[in-house]
Design brief:
The protein is of the alpha+beta class. The chain has one domain. 16% of the residues lie in helices and 40% in strands. It contains one helix and eight strands. It has a three-stranded antiparallel β-sheet, with no helix packed on it. β6 and β7 form a beta hairpin. About 7% of the residues have low confidence.
Length: 122
Amino acid sequence: MRNGIAWAALVILFLAGEASAEGDISVCPDVSAIKASAFKSDVTPMPAPYNAGYEYDAVTPDGTKWHGETLATKDSFLEPKYELRPDSEEEQDKKIICRYRGTTVTKDKNVVSPYLKLIREK
């Protein structure tokens, strides 16, 4: 009986921890607030086309600035066909990370799975 109660308590604690680790995506900038611009990394060992992609900036209504980048892509993922949306929020050290995912699109036999993350300092 005691073992059953102990296991149940452990499961409840584990599930509560998993739920809180997911974070609050309401702090993430709305997709409509994200602006993309072409980006090329100046990191020397990174060869083309892996050194090119997009840089993202967003400002939330409270004035908080977010920044991110994706490399090795020709798509900004902000087009409506990708249906980009906030997926998760996570706090690490002195920053908050919002991850976005969207609908996978096949284009000319290329499969594109949209993913980007925006980061802000606490």
